[in-house]
Amino acid sequence: LPVSAVTNADQFYLFAWIVLALAGGFVVGLERECRGHEAGVRTYALVCDGSALFGRVSFLHGSTSIAANVVQGIGFLGAGLVFHQSGGVRGITTAATVWVMAAVGLLVASEAWLAAILFTLAIVLMLELEPVSSWILAHGKPRAEPHSVPPDAVE
Questions:
Q1: CA angle 14, 105, 53 (to 5 degrees)
Q2: Pairing with 90, which of 6, 8, 15, 150 sits 20 to 30 Å away (CA)?
Q3: 113-128 vs 8-34: helix axis angle to the nearest 10?
C-alpha cells in the first residue's frame, strides 16, 4: 500500500501485531535471561519485533525480498553470538534461538498469531529441556575432541 493509503486504524492494527511479536520475544528472552545466557529479554524481543516489522512492511509492499533478507541478517547476527571458549564452542543455542525467533516474527508479520504463540511456547519448552540435555551429556559417551588426531596416527 502506498504510504498515503495507510490510515491511522491500519497503523494501530500493525502496531498490535508488532506488540504480539514483542511479547513472544519477551517470553523467550525471559527464559534465557533467567538461565543466565548471553542474550536476554531485550535481545529476543527486539529480534522478534524487528523481523515482524520488516516482514510486515515487506508484505504490505507486495514483495517478499525484505522478509527474505531478514533470514540473512539474523544469520549474520547469530554468527556473532557464537564464540570459542576453553577449547569449546559457546553460543550455538543462543544463535539458534535468535534465528528461530526471527522466524516467529515473520509468522506474526503473516498474521499467523496462533502459530506464532504455539511456536513461542514450543521454543520455551525446548529451552527448558536443557537440564535433560546436560544429564544426557554427563552420563553418555564422552564427545571426541574436535579435529583431534589419535596418538597412534602421529609418526
A1: 40
A2: 150
A3: 10
